[in-house]
Amino acid sequence: MVGDQPVCPPQLLLRGWGAVLLSQCLSSVFSQIPDPELLPTDPPKKPDPVTSETVVFWGLRLWQVIGIFAVFVLAVVITLCCIFKCRIPRTKKEIEARHAQRQAAKKYANTLETVPPLNELTEIPGSTSDASAVQTVSEQVQPQSANSSQLSVVRVSEEPSSSVSLPETG
């Protein structure tokens, strides 16, 4: 028995081929079903647009942060300009005027250094040392008031005596 091989009934063979075909079809169908992890999800939510009213940090809005920063920068610039005397003249006339002003200030400072002390200034240069030649206003007023009070006393005493006497002022 050369052909001693077991013989399969044709129904069994059909079922085997059917099972193979069915598994092939199912595998091709299942391969088309996407994996839930790989399925596209909703796109990420876009952040809110940045406006001047957007709270940046510490509860401050964007315009407040920009304002504080600008004031700080302005204060630094002003401080540096005051410390280093950053002055930028605009025209040639202003440059020349400032140069002339500096020269006049230097000349004035030099003349102040040559001014004698106050006690030396009370004497008038080129005059004699006669102290009575120069009188102050208060020195002139005091003798006049003394002379006028003496004159009124003298006039009262020179008048002829009468029944009515004038009260003395004093």
From TrEMBL:
<feature type="transmembrane region" description="Helical">
    <location>
        <begin position="62"/>
        <end position="84"/>
    </location>
</feature>
<dbReference type="GO" id="GO:0042472">
    <property type="term" value="P:inner ear morphogenesis"/>
</dbReference>
<feature type="region of interest" description="Disordered">
    <location>
        <begin position="125"/>
        <end position="170"/>
    </location>
</feature>
<keyword id="KW-0812">Transmembrane</keyword>
<dbReference type="InterPro" id="IPR032006">
    <property type="entry name" value="TMIE"/>
</dbReference>
<protein>
    <submittedName>
        <fullName>Transmembrane inner ear</fullName>
    </submittedName>
</protein>
<feature type="compositionally biased region" description="Low complexity">
    <location>
        <begin position="151"/>
        <end position="170"/>
    </location>
</feature>
<keyword id="KW-1133">Transmembrane helix</keyword>
<dbReference type="GO" id="GO:0007605">
    <property type="term" value="P:sensory perception of sound"/>
</dbReference>
<dbReference type="Pfam" id="PF16038">
    <property type="entry name" value="TMIE"/>
</dbReference>
<feature type="compositionally biased region" description="Polar residues">
    <location>
        <begin position="125"/>
        <end position="150"/>
    </location>
</feature>
<keyword id="KW-0472">Membrane</keyword>
